[in-house]
Amino acid sequence: TPLRPGIDIEEGRKFWCYQSIEPHVPPSVANAAWPYCAVDRFLLATLEERNLHPAADAPRATWLRRVTFDLIGLPPKPEEIDAFESDGSPLAHALVVDRLLASPHFGERWGRHWLDVARFAESSGGGRSIVFEDAWRYRDYVIESFNKDKPLDEFIIEQIAGDLLPH
């Protein structure tokens, strides 16, 4: 008998998340030069089925501008653009990403999203604004957590039970 009317446990066990993980062979594609990895072959196969083609790579300065805005929320400096455009190394893109991830601006950019979710504020706002003098400590802790690549499970535990954890 079902636990509750309308719930079929056996049918629920067929749901995708309860299935064993099975390897999938990446499909063959017409444009074998485009994919960088196996995932790209799945994407390209879907595009080719629809008679679509991947967009061309962005010019180097455009790519640098996009990745810099995405990771740190700021535009690249002119000297960074010049250095990247003159770097013909196959590792140039990876070095840029590593540099941006190591920037303190990375934690500022991405930590703000968590601060928004946590409804962080340094004052009560409104007509009689009360300043929370030590609010900066939490803000800086969040930024530092992102910059140090703190594991998400550890970060969440600290959010929920921070005052109960050993100092």
What tags apply to this protein structure?
167 residues; mainly alpha; flat
Descriptive report:
The protein is an all-alpha fold and 167 residues long. The protein is 51% helix and 0% strand. The chain is built from eight helices and no strands. Helix 3 packs parallel to helix 5 (92-101). The longest helix is centred in the middle third of the chain and has 14 residues, at 104-117. The termini are far apart. The model has no long low-confidence stretch (mean pLDDT 91).
In short:
This protein is mostly helical. It is 51% helix and 0% strand.
Write the layout of secondary structure elements.
Blueprint: H1 9-12, H2 38-49, H3 60-72, H4 78-86, H5 92-101, H6 104-117, H7 135-147, H8 152-161
Order of helices and strands: HHHHHHHH
Main beta sheet: strand number and arrangement?
none
Instruction: Report the uncertain regions.
Output: none
> What structural class do helix, strand and pairing data support?
mainly alpha
What's the total count of β strands? 0
Mean pLDDT, to the nearest integer, reads 91
Rounded radius of gyration (Å):
24 Å
Distance between the termini: 50 Å
Instruction: Specify the helix fraction band.
Output: 40-55%
Principal-axes geometry comes out as flat
| Share of β-strand residues | under 5%
Count of alpha and pi helical runs:
8
